[in-house]
Amino acid sequence: MRVAVASFEFEGNTLSNQIHGRGDFARKVLAEGAAMLRAVEGRDLAVAGGMEVLAAAGLEVVPLVAAQGGSGGRVDDGFYREIRDQIISGAAAAMPLAGVYLALHGAMITESENDPEGEILAAVRQVVGPAIPITASFDLHAHVTPRMVAAADALVGYETYPHIDAHNTGRRAAEILVGAIRGRIRPVMRLRRIDALLPVAGGATDDPDAPMAKLRRSARRAEQEGRVISASYFPVQPWLDIPDLGIAGLAVADGDAEAAAQVADEIVREMWDRRREFEIPNFAPQEAARRALAHASPRVLISDAPDCVGGGAPGDAPAVLAALLEQATATPSAVLVVDAAAAAAAHQAGVGAALTTTIGASLDPRFHPAVAVDAVVESLHDGSFVYSGGVSAGTPGRMGPTAVLRVGELRIVVPTHATYEYGDEQYRAAGIDIRALRIAVLKNPMNFRTLLDHDTAWVMVAGPGPTTPSLDSIEWKVKRRPFWPCDDLPQPTYLGD
Ligand SMILES: [Zn+2]
């Protein structure tokens, strides 16, 4: 009995001006057919977890394609169709199949498609017919659509944020698939969505008092009580200006559609009821730098939330660099700003050379002007590293040629390419131990939490950018109004599913 397996993972952002294609995926994970096994096996990825469960159940895995591109704006239509068609034609060629498992993100967008995962799931359903079970694992920030739910038997989201359970989520999706293939369970799924968005930074599951940790406990309770097989919460990737974006609850039950609908509704209602608990204080860059310098803690992490690569921003915003150049050149500190031209100039100049250059705003100049610096080239690197955890655990990260520039005590890491930040991999690849510094800037509103200890405090930055923490500051053009938090709604408005 054969099960077709593929992964196609990318998180989109309509506020980004970037288009991503083969090169962006190839720098992360891109492998077809049998090569896919070597690319993902043994790693902490959702697709690897799923394949382990299928193999252990005695099912033959048919590897189609693994493509993981991280985050950004939209995926190039041509590249998207290539991978989509590999999945569809691969499944067709592998028939007869006992089942299909797909590791997806759930919030990918392409140049012309706002629901590519829904399109892929519907096309695979067309290929295998109504009787063959299809399950998929999703990121917790998935934008789950009715088309996805109609096409699949079960969808399962990550439990954690920072995301540390991709592998286990793949296992859970595959376990449901195995149960359905063996006829032990008859999965039925229901989705409930509310027209509301929540600040990403307030969604931590590693703080037991945070609202998302409470949601997690509620979902697990619904499973432990046997009401449903799987309960997922989707606070959604909020930087998608598309009409029907909204927070969602989703549950899979064994034959009991009513139970699934009830649990899905309880989950999304709890998210709505706790919506004000998701707010996290954030400060303009100069004020954030001032607070970091004045903080009693020996170390302070500044979270540059508006330029989060993991949320789709290009990582080239120099707003915090500008603030540190004004305030912190006498303080052991480090900041990272993507700039291919500045990295190349530093590599040309060589270690020890004086370099006058501009940094930042080279990919997206809309939010902050480039910053001029007179620096010394402290060190040069090839920018390669391996992720120590998170959704990319064990896979390579490739910043490309990277330079460390120094202005007084401030180190400026200048990579060629933006990379998803999980912990301090980028700094370590540039030879910098941020634990030895007073201030370090991370371009992520959540994953910096993996670096916190009792000597480390944090400050979050506010302001414009593709991943601004202020959702009500965004000029929404397409999203249907009214919705929370841009409109003050006393009651939840359900999106029709
Ligand atoms: Zn996510």
TrEMBL record:
The answer on whether this UniProt entry bears the keyword Hydrolase reads yes
| Cofactor note (record) | Binds 1 zinc ion per subunit.
Pfam families cross-referenced by the UniProt entry:
DUF1485 (PF07364), MlrC_C (PF07171)
Query: What are the Microcystin LR degradation protein MlrC C-terminal domain coordinates in residue numbering?
Result: 302-477
What keywords sit in the KW lines? Hydrolase, Metal-binding, Metalloprotease, Protease
Cofactor list: Zn(2+)
Any idea where the Microcystin LR degradation protein MlrC N-terminal domain is?
2-293
What does this gene product do?
Involved in peptidolytic degradation of cyclic heptapeptide hepatotoxin microcystin (MC).
Q: Which family does it belong to?
A: Belongs to the peptidase M81 family.
**Name of the protein in question:** Microcystinase C
The species is Plastoroseomonas hellenica
